[in-house]
Amino acid sequence: MIEIDDAGGGCFLGPEVLVIHRLETNEAWYFLLIPPHVKERILFATRILKKAFIELGISCQEPVRLCRGEIFDLFEEYLKAKGYPVVREKVSAATDRLAEGKFLEILHSYGLPSDITLRDRNYREFYEWVSLWYHSLPKAKKHLCKVRLRPPVRTQVLAKKYPNLLRQIFTETSVS
Question: Chain centroid to CA 96: how far?
């Protein structure tokens, strides 16, 4: 069974990660990233997934489980037209961890403190922490922001009101 999941689509910062995971062998491929500057992410995802299926030699006899996210709608149509057995449902915890882990790894490579992680699938809280960290930076890294999403306004207001406090919080967090 092949599972495909995404991570980071709702975060204003960084790329969106797509993972293809073969459950039986635990093989995973992460090279599928949707850069922040891409506006038409569904078309982009479909194009890179088609290419990956060809490069990886995934046969149409192999069942495919797609995450329920709308990013896979066009790809599902493509797979069905090619004769792949496709189901749309929640992917396994293992595949979900792979996608989320790669997305967090990318954010941490930008300098996000490593103790800021997704907990209990609370995306809203996580994205607010990412936004607070982003606004605490002395110089914004605009090139890392998605063109289709903006940071939460509430965190921008907090960052403007208490810039030194946020810098201190994140400096202490990343040193500890």
Answer: 10
Question: Distance from CA of residue 140 to its chain's centroid?
Answer: 20
For the chain, the residue count is 176
> HSE of 81 in the Cβ direction (CA atoms, 13 Å)?
7
Q: Which of 2-6, 133-137, 146-150, 151-155 has the lowest mean pLDDT?
A: 151-155
Phi-psi region at 119: left, alpha or beta (left = phi > 0; alpha = psi -120 to 50): beta
* Measured distance CA(104)–CA(15) in Å, rounded: 11
The DSSP secondary structure of 145-158, one letter per residue, reads B-TT----HHHHHH
68-108 pLDDT, tens digit per residue, is 999 999 999 999 999 999 999 999 999 999 999 999 999 99
Structural domains for the chain: 2-101 (3.30.420.10), 114-175 (no CATH)
Nearest-5° Cα angle at 44, 41 to 46: 110
